[in-house]
Amino acid sequence: MTLLNLSRLHVTLGTRRVLHDISLDVGAGELIGLIGPNGAGKSTLLKSVLGLVPSSGGIRIAGTAASRLSLRERAKHIAYLPQDREISWAVSVEHLVALGRTPHLRGFSGPGANDVALVESAMQRMEIAAFRHRSALELSGGERARVLIARALAQDAALLLADEPTAGLDPAHQIALMQSLANMVGQGTSVVVSLHDLGLAARWCTRLVLIHEGSIVADGIPADVLTVDHMRGIYGVETYLEKTAQGLIVQPVALVGTSHDTAGKR
Amino acid sequence: MKDHFRLLLLGLALLTCIMFVASLLVGPAALGTSDSIRALLMGQGDAIVIVMREIRLPRALLGLMIGATLGLSGAVLQGYLRNPLAEPGLLGVSASASLGAVIAIYTGLSLAFPLALPLMALAGAVLAVLLVQALAGRSAGTLTIILAGVAVSSFAGAMTTLALNLSPNPFAAMEIVYWMLGSLTDRSMLHVQLAAPFILMGWVLLFSLGRSLDALTLGPDAAASMGINIKRVQLFAILGTAASVGAATAVAGAIGFVGLIVPHVLRPLVGARPSRLLPASALGGASMLLGADILARLIAPDRDLKLGVLTAIIGAPFFLWLVFRTRRGMS
């Protein structure tokens, strides 16, 4: 089933054309990496799907035109992890995760048994239940990232859009985070994740979408998207690429036009 | 946790009730407790009935309503702007309502027609909110709203100062200054009737925001992605504050610090959850204002100590203590 279908999507902010003619399908069981240089339009693409920025063109969510869905109905289909990991108040981890149930609650009624169970399960899956009573402002970067993913999990949506979730994390936490996204995919949620770390993108994603100046320039399996030519033409770097048993190794080594003795071409 | 919260609300409600009754029983006319209550409820005893029903009851009612308004709107604005320093005056509502009142005093309108003062103040609040909403425009950015509020506040403040500057006689200037300090003295049931509809309307708008404010803990984008209509939240927060704080300022003048401090103090007690802070802060605000008003009558019964002065005198050192505590917590 197609969870998300974008056809000829355009976004113009002010006079600046940010996204141009984007067409993309997201199916079940996909872990899609959204890659591209700074300012390519990755974040804007995620936000336009959520209705956070105005767009023209077609967005269909689970088969229904997004324009016919309220924000709340969208939220039942799509969860979102923004780039900044903002937490304003010292609420407990448990209450923070429970915020994920917001689109499912009505009026002044409190959470039901189903809501409580989903929050509990999200905390178990992200292994944060042990510090559920701690203040969310006292967490380390890695813990905070896990808590916020648990919040998105509790939303119980079929699709998760994550904007740069690995930024600022050490390698162990980056891998743990990608592993948890992969686990979500294993349990039936599709994930679209924007990434700057191409190594992580190559290693974990089933499919990569390369965006450059607001347009999709490549869409396919990592080995087809991360090519020497794309790395040169779009990122402006010479890159060492090697296919290994663990997947594709991607190591940018030098700016185009400078010395690049170690750059391989395989 | 849930029981803890209920206990807190119960305690605050009890405190508010005690303060309300105490406010009815304290005053320059030395009346016996049982006589007072009998007069209030059953209308027995001529002079006492007038004191109780015409002087003390409106004063206590206004203390309750205005205190709750300041606490509630402070909690909503801090939650909406995600800034612990936000307070009801931030949107320019208090300053503009004050300006409306000052114009009524300055032009002598309030002498000819006593209700002109609160009505002009309300008009000032309405103008301020229209201006802030227009300036903030379609963008739901909180920074624009803060800046618009600062602009409106500064302008209203400047016009108020101009009125003082050009005041025809020292008595008018004195009256303006006194009015701006805030007070509940000599208000009648007419004031209560005038303010109550606006205050209640504001409360309904502000109380409806609890769940949205909880979601805003994660920032506006995350909240919107969870189905919260941020523009609606903005509209309700601004209109709710304008209606309730505008009406409060219209009848009692600008009373500072309550809306800033009460949410601050109570936040740790409700697990920092914005939705839970709303009822707690409303009750806390009512207790604090009623308490301050009682204190004003006890400290200097015959000098008409101004409420705004008292809340600032209590509030400022308390705020300093909070700053020190926060600093210790960080280091």
Q: Please work out how many helical segments of chain A DSSP would assign.
A: 9
Helical residue percent band of chain B: over 70%
Give the termini distance of chain A in whole angstroms: 36 Å
Shape of chain B: globular
Task: Describe the structure concisely.
The complex is a heterodimer of chains A (266) and B (331). Chain A has 266 residues and is of the alpha/beta class. In chain A, 32% of the residues lie in helices and 30% in strands.
List keywords for this structure.
heterodimer; A: 266 residues; alpha/beta; Rossmann fold; 2 domains; six-stranded mixed sheet; four-stranded antiparallel sheet; 9 helices; 12 strands; globular; B: 331 residues; mainly alpha; ABC transporter involved in vitamin B12 uptake, BtuC; 15 helices; 0% strand
Q: Can you walk me through this structure?
A:
By secondary structure, chain A is of the alpha/beta class. Chain A folds into two domains: 2-226, Rossmann fold (3-Layer(aba) Sandwich), CATH 3.40.50.300; 228-266, no CATH class. Chain A contains nine helices and twelve strands. A six-stranded mixed β-sheet of chain A has the order 6-7-8-3-9-10, with helices on both faces. Chain A has a four-stranded antiparallel β-sheet with strand order 2-1-4-5, with helices on one face. In chain A, strands 11-12 form a two-stranded antiparallel sheet. Chain B has a single domain (2-330), classed as ABC transporter involved in vitamin B12 uptake, BtuC (Orthogonal Bundle), CATH 1.10.3470. The two termini of chain B are 28 Å apart. Chain A binds chain B through residues 47, 50-52, 70-76, 78-82, 84, 86-92, 95-96, 99-100, 102-103, 105, 108, 135, 148, 151, 155, and chain B through 82, 210-211, 214-219, 221-229, 267-268, 271-274. Chain B: It is found in: Cell membrane.
